[in-house]
Amino acid sequence: MKLISQEFLHNIAPQLNLLNTLGGGVAQPQVRVQKREQGVVIRVSAPSVRPETFHVVLNNNRLDVFAEYRHAAEEQLVAPLFVQTFELPVELDLTRIDAEHEGHELRVRIPYQDPTTNHREINIRRR
């Protein structure tokens, strides 16, 4: 005699995962920051996280990288899987940030600013 059907288990598993996440369980991505000659590359490896759940948000010099869990795409109930915040130094060009997801890894590239664009002589007005 079967007490629990396969269909029931299939339907309840995402809700249990969501409740675990809401109860404090989180995904543990591997985050690496690489300084290169051209700029900085932030790599976030999270094999169990789908690419469409990643978000990269820039607010002034603060970069938030996070992923969220939704049981269905149209569902309103959302739980964070992980959040990583980076305080970006002033020598990075925040207007040229690039992000891409390939395989199981999100890569965010932030180039350094061109040092010649910040150096200019200021005209002195005469009265």
From TrEMBL:
<dbReference type="InterPro" id="IPR008978">
    <property type="entry name" value="HSP20-like_chaperone"/>
</dbReference>
<feature type="domain" description="SHSP">
    <location>
        <begin position="22"/>
        <end position="127"/>
    </location>
</feature>
<dbReference type="InterPro" id="IPR002068">
    <property type="entry name" value="A-crystallin/Hsp20_dom"/>
</dbReference>
<dbReference type="Pfam" id="PF00011">
    <property type="entry name" value="HSP20"/>
</dbReference>
<protein>
    <submittedName>
        <fullName>Hsp20 family protein</fullName>
    </submittedName>
</protein>
<comment type="similarity">
    <text>Belongs to the small heat shock protein (HSP20) family.</text>
</comment>
